[in-house]
Design brief:
Elements (H helix, E strand, L loop, with lengths): L2 E4 L3 H7 L6 E3 L5 H12 L18
Antiparallel strand pairs: 1-2
Length: 60
């Protein structure tokens, strides 16, 4: 599974109101794979995927 967990922080919860999800994913996952996984899990159409590699080595 590509998605390890979803972040539950004050900022990520406020972004949920704008239909923006924040998740920790596998470091080797690319944007296309992340998009397909979200569409499969939630049965929604994903407009775009932004990624960020944190200093801890996690991919958001």
């Amino acid at each position: 599974m590509l998605i390890k967990c979803f972040l539950v922080t004050e900022k990520s919860v406020s972004e949920l109101e704008k239909n923006i999800l924040t998740a920790i994913v596998n470091l080797r996952a690319n944007k296309k794979q992340i998009k397909m996984e979200i569409e499969r899990l939630f049965k929604v159409e994903v407009e775009k995927v932004n990624t960020l590699v944190t200093p801890k080595g996690e991919k958001k």
